[in-house]
Design goal:
The protein is of the alpha+beta class. Helices cover 22% and strands 40% of the residues. The longest helix has 10 residues.
Length: 85
């Protein structure tokens, strides 16, 4: 997806060999598509959670959620796998 391309292009991996893990990011997609309340719930360490939060703050707008035809705020938890060489 476009988002994962954006994320992998902007995420700076830590200089830690063979780091494999998942970052779980929680955030809210607002009715205008902006992301707010971005926070890392869990990460494999080495600053990966903070870096992921920083990248998410630069994310292009998302498509807002809809309910009964109206735009609504949506809380989201996104797992992102990371693997360093």
């Amino acid at each position: 997806s476009n988002f994962y391309n954006f994320f992998s292009k902007n995420f700076k991996k830590p200089q830690v060999p063979d780091l494999i893990g998942k970052i779980f990011l929680a955030f809210t997609v607002e009715t205008d598509g902006t992301l707010t309340d971005i926070r890392s719930l869990k990460d494999p360490g080495f600053g990966t959670g903070a870096e992921a939060e920083k990248v998410m703050q630069q994310s292009p707008k998302w498509i807002p959620g809809r309910k009964s035809g109206k735009r609504v705020r949506v809380n989201y938890i996104l797992p992102i796998g990371i693997h360093t060489e």
